[in-house]
C-alpha cells in the first residue's frame, strides 16, 4: 500500500515564555499511513497527540524531522501539502455560532474553493448524509453538541480532500450520538476511501473504526500495530475469576502487587496474564489464602484493556 502520510522522526519542544523552561511534547515520532487507511492515534492526556496532528496539518513546524503528504513536505511545500488535508480540530469551535447550519456550509464551501456551480449539490449531499435536514436553518449556537460535531465533520468534508484528520471526534457526546458519529465516519471511510487519522480517548472508536493504531506515551510512539493483532495478542490472557469469599485488603494488595488486576468488583476480579502458567500461580496464592474460587473464565479482552496495558508497560519500562 502506498503511504500518503509520512511522519519522519518529528520532535517538538514548547518553550514557556516567562520561565523560559522547555518541554519536549513529541520526541522522534515516526509512522506512515497508507492510502485509504484509518488509523487511531491514541495516548493518555498530554501524550502528544494534538501536537502530532497539528504538525501533520501544518499548524506547527517541527523542531526536527518532517511530515510529507502525498510526497509534499508540510513546511517547504505547505500549500501543496495542505491541499490534500481537511481537519476537525477541537470539535465544534471551527464553526460560526451565529450562522445557521446551511450558512456555515455555504461560507466554508466558498472558502475552500468549491465552485459556485457545485455548492448547492454539495451542501444538499452533506446535509442528507449527516442527517441535518431538520436543522438546516437553525443557528449553530442553538444546536446540541452532537449536532455541532456532525456539522464540524460535514464542513471538513466540503473540500473532498484525500486525508481527514479528526481530533477527538466523539468527545463529550452521549452514547447514542457517539454511535451515530462513528457510523458516519465508517460510511465516509468505506464509501469514499479517504485516509483518516483519528486522535481519541474513545477506545470503542478505535476498535470499531480503525485498522491500525499508533499509541503515543510521553511524546514517543510505543506501539504501531494492527488493532486485530493487538487484540489477539492479548486475547487468551484475560480472565475473570469469581471468588467464594471476599479477600481482605491485605490479600488484595498482595495480589495486586503480583498481577495486573484491572478490575475488582466485590467477589469478582479481572486479570490479564502474560503466560498461561501465571493463572496457576494466581490460583495457588488464592488457595494459600484460603479463598476458594467459584468460577474462572477466559474473557474477551476489549481494546480499552489492551491500551491500558500497553501504556502501563511503557511507563514501567
Ligand atoms: N502551547 C504549548 N505550550 C507549552 N506546552 C504545551 C503547549 N501545547 C501542549 N503542551 C504540552 O505538550 C504536551 C503534549 O500536549 P498535547 O496537547 O499534544 O497532548 P495530547 O496527547 O493531545 O493530550 P490530551 O489528550 O490531553 O489532549 C502536554 O504536556 C502539554 O501540556
Written account of the structure:
- The chain has helices spanning 49-56, 78-82, 101-111, 116-129, 145-157, 175-192, 203-209, 227-235, 249-258, 276-288, 303-316; strands spanning 3-15, 22-34, 38-42, 64-69, 72-73, 85-88, 163-167, 195-199, 212-217, 220-226, 238-243, 261-265, 268-272, 293-298.
- By secondary structure, it is an alpha/beta fold.
- The chain has three domains: 1-84 and 161-228, 3-Layer(aba) Sandwich (Rossmann fold); 90-159, no CATH class; 238-300, Alpha-Beta Plaits (2-Layer Sandwich).
- The chain has a six-stranded mixed β-sheet with strand order 6-7-8-3-9-10, with helices on both faces. Strands 2-1-4-5 form a four-stranded antiparallel β-sheet. A four-stranded antiparallel β-sheet has the order 12-13-11-14, with helices on one face.
- Helix 3 packs across helix 4.
- The protein starts with a strand and ends with a helix.
- The relative contact order is 0.13.
- Adenosine-5'-triphosphate binds next to strand 2 and helix 1.
